[in-house]
From TrEMBL, chain A:
This is ABC transporter permease. One of its GO terms (cellular component) is plasma membrane. Belongs to the binding-protein-dependent transport system permease family. OppBC subfamily. InterPro entries: BP-dependent_transpt_permease (IPR050366), MetI-like (IPR000515), MetI-like_sf (IPR035906), OppC_N (IPR025966). It comes from Oceanobacillus piezotolerans. One of its GO terms (biological process) is peptide transport. PANTHER family: OLIGOPEPTIDE TRANSPORT SYSTEM PERMEASE PROTEIN AMID, OLIGOPEPTIDE TRANSPORT SYSTEM PERMEASE PROTEIN APPC. It is a multi-pass membrane protein. Residues 179-368 form the ABC transmembrane type-1 domain. The keyword Membrane applies. It is found in: Cell membrane. It comes from the Bacteria. Pfam families: BPD_transp_1, OppC_N. Keywords: Cell membrane, Membrane, Peptide transport, Protein transport, Transmembrane, Transmembrane helix, Transport.
From TrEMBL, chain B:
CDD domains: TM_PBP2 (cd06261). One of its GO terms (biological process) is transmembrane transport. This is ABC transporter permease. It is a multi-pass membrane protein. InterPro entries: BPD_transp_1_N (IPR045621), MetI-like (IPR000515), MetI-like_sf (IPR035906). GO terms for cellular component: plasma membrane. Belongs to the binding-protein-dependent transport system permease family. It is found in: Cell membrane. It comes from Oceanobacillus piezotolerans. Residues 94-295 form the ABC transmembrane type-1 domain. Pfam families: BPD_transp_1, BPD_transp_1_N. The chain crosses the membrane at residues 9-27, 100-121, 133-153, 227-248, 273-295. The lineage of its organism: Bacteria, Bacillati, Bacillota, Bacilli, Bacillales. Keywords: Cell membrane, Membrane, Transmembrane, Transmembrane helix, Transport.
Length: 381, 309
């Protein structure tokens, strides 16, 4: 019966199926190279992009900032020492702290006594001090005094954007010059470390065997010496200054890079494309520079991005404990050190360099994180 | 394991020897001598003093004496404090530094583990982002900036804590917080990454399928495995605390080793600087050694492969 029915279907209904194009092997997404993928991933990372912009602005400011006003780096003038920050336009918004006044609360037995304390603190310039009574009760009076120092010193037409330090030098100029020095040291130190580290690690990894063994034993001993100890000893021995800080930082800075590069080269050199290059008669030098280094460039870049903030921190640390940049030159570390000396009375001397160094460190760390994610194939979608 | 310990201790001794040799010859090359600090001495007195300190001997003999002195814990005589051995100066100041460092390390690690744990549990949630932001700020902002903020806000403006100096427990609160932020942030980041990875692994799914309670999974199965690698970070963290302590002690005027170092730098007191540096070096290396060995004990894989780090 069944057989009969199938036979009953008219012939013309049986149309041969049209072969569809085979789509299972088709690549639907556009094909991108690894670097294109990395760039896409990085551009999607808003925080990292924002950090790049912030850092570029800071670098530009460190180049042009010092020449934006008429004050020089070492123009000392004690008559204008310890002036608070004052910026045109912004001075009208009182809570920003750019209005060029010093203010504090003073206590005393009576209101009068507290007021006198305030006058004594602010050069006895009674005409330029505004007193606001916070607590008038007997025994624990409290007044808030605001000292208009620019008027008192007859400098109404002058604007020190970030104030002046204890020697009357303009903080704006010194801040950007200090940033320039700090960034310069960090960049130079990081790039020298990069060059030495890549060369050392590359040679050890590529040649392997005895060369690798000897080089790695030396490295192991060097890594065992804490970098703080070497840096401190070098700073004692060398004359303080930019060059010696760079030397001290690079002496220890390259070891991490060397280890990473060696490990990667060791992994990559047994790959087929290296064998192919050799079979075709490429020299060792060509194999290293054309085939191996481009493939580990991601790791090298990430490592350098984390080395730079380390160098900035160590420079600031050395300058802070008195082994770094010497006056009259400034760096972020020396500015912060000066700021601490005056923290309780003139806190603005600490805040500006402290905020700037924090911004720089955060920016570099975020960029480093972003690059690490961007170069990680697992993150590419 | 014995072979592994032997190898590590061997490297430690070599490293210490190199540092000691390096610092000795550096000291010979530096200007100044103990006698510069003294007032006018006659030739005879000079000769007597030189003889007393062994400065007339040829350099190799001095070197041998120096090294054997080091082995016995003799770090030389300070230039700045007349006739006081460096060892005594440092011993007087070990207490505050040790207390500060221990408080910061213990508190920082515990808080960091909690922070990382919370972040990992609420993966990609609000708490995760909050703790990630804290971690990024904590690892980026230098500790002296934190110290400045704390000192200004809590000591100078609010007057909750003493501004500086050392004495009661209250004095140690602000410096401990300033010092512990970096280890806290580092531990938080580390624990979060590890914990997210562990919580995604197969044995956690198995535990869930068997009906283990959520706290049981997080603490018994998750945290235990995530904490093992943390041991490797604690060593470098303790080392970074010593760098930090120099600055923090100077800022809060704490009579510790770090503050002594900074003051010695100011007055060019080379023997004290060298002695402190050597002591730092010894502590650094000892801490790294201990954490390496501890890691070998906890994680059997390290022991078997002979510690390929």
């Amino acid at each position: 019966m069944d057989n009969n029915q199938t036979n009953n279907i008219p012939k013309e209904l049986l149309v041969p199926m049209k072969p569809k194009e085979d789509t299972s092997e088709k690549i639907s997404a556009p094909s991108r190279t690894f670097l294109q993928n990395a760039r896409r991933a990085f551009l999607k990372n808003k925080l990292a992009l924002f950090s790049v912009v912030a850092l570029v602005i800071i670098i530009i400011m460190s180049a042009i900032g010092p020449s934006m006003n008429e004050y020089g780096q070492d123009e000392q003038d004690l008559t204008r020492a310890k002036m608070p920050a004052r910026v045109p336009v912004l001075e009208n918004i009182s809570w920003l702290g750019f209005n060029g006044t010093l203010s504090d609360t003073f206590e005393g037995q009576t209101v009068e006594q507290a007021t006198n304390n305030a006058y004594a603190r602010y050069d006895n310039q009674e005409d330029f001090i505004e007193i606001e009574v916070l607590n008038g009760s007997e025994g624990s009076a409290e007044v808030k005094a605001t000292y208009n120092i620019y008027d008192a010193k007859d400098m109404e037409d002058q604007y020190f954007w970030l104030g002046t330090d204890t020697l009357g030098r303009d903080q704006w100029t010194r801040l950007w010059l200090g940033t320039r020095v700090s960034l310069l040291i960090a960049f130079i130190a990081a790039f020298i470390s990069l060059a030495i580290g890549v060369a050392y690690g590359g040679i050890a990894g590529f040649y392997g065997g005895k060369v690798d063994n000897v080089m790695m034993r030396i490295l192991e001993v060097l890594v065992g010496i804490p970098n703080l100890v070497i840096i401190l000893l070098m700073m004692l021995f060398l004359k303080p200054g930019i060059t010696s800080i760079v030397i001290a930082l690079t002496i220890t800075g390259w070891t991490g890079m060397a280890r990473i590069v060696r490990g990667e080269i060791l992994k990559l050199k047994s790959q087929e494309y290296v064998l192919a290059a050799r079979t075709l008669g490429q020299s060792n030098w060509k194999v290293i520079t054309k085939h191996l280094l481009p493939n580990i460039s991601g790791i090298i870049i990430i490592n350098t991005m984390f080395n730079i903030p380390d160098a900035i921190f160590f420079e600031a640390f050395l300058s802070f404990i008195g082994l770094g940049i010497t006056p009259p030159d400034a760096s972020l570390g020396t500015l912060i050190n000066n700021g601490f000396d005056n923290l309780l009375l003139y806190p603005y001397m600490l805040w500006f360099p402290a905020i700037l160094i924090s911004l720089i460190m955060i920016a570099f760390n975020l960029i480093g994180d972003g690059l690490r994610d961007a170069f990680d194939p697992k993150m590419h979608k | 394991m014995v072979r592994y310990i032997g190898k590590r201790v061997g490297y430690m001794l070599i490293t210490l020897f190199i540092i000691a040799t390096f610092s000795f010859f550096l000291m010979k090359m530096l200007p100044g001598s103990p006698l510069n600090a003294e007032d006018k001495l006659s030739e005879e007195q000079r000769a007597i003093v030189l003889e007393k300190y062994g400065l007339n001997d040829p350099v190799p003999v001095q070197y041998v004496n120096y090294i054997s002195g080091l082995v016995q814990g003799d770090l030389g005589i300070s230039f700045a404090f007349s006739n006081t051995p460096v060892t005594d100066i440092l011993m007087d100041r070990v207490g505050p530094s040790a207390q500060l460092g221990a408080q910061a390390l213990v508190l920082g690690t515990i808080l960091g583990v909690i922070l990382g744990l919370v972040a990992a549990i609420s993966h990609n949630g609000f708490l995760d982002y909050t703790s990630t932001i804290i971690a990024v700020l904590g690892t980026s902002i230098p500790n002296f900036v934190f110290a400045g903020i704390l000192q200004y806000v809590f000591a100078s403006e609010l007057e909750w804590f003493p501004v500086a100096l050392w004495g009661s427990f209250e004095h140690s609160i602000l410096p401990t917080i300033a010092l512990m932020i970096f280890p806290m942030a580092t531990a938080a980041r580390f624990v979060r990454t590890e914990m997210v990875e562990v919580l995604g692994s197969n044995f956690i799914t198995t535990a869930r399928a068997k009906g283990v309670s959520e706290p049981g999974i997080v603490f018994k199965h998750g945290l235990r495995n995530a904490l093992i690698p943390l041991v490797t970070v604690i060593g470098p963290l303790a080392v970074s605390l010593m760098t930090g302590s120099m600055v923090i002690e100077e800022i809060f005027a704490i009579p510790g080793i770090g503050e002594q170092f900074v003051n010695s730098v100011m007055v060019n007191d080379y023997p004290t600087i060298m002695g402190t540096t050597l002591m730092f070096a010894f502590l650094f290396i000892l801490i790294i050694l201990i954490t390496d060995l501890l890691y070998g004990l906890i994680d059997p894989r390290i022991r078997i492969s002979g510690g390929d780090r």
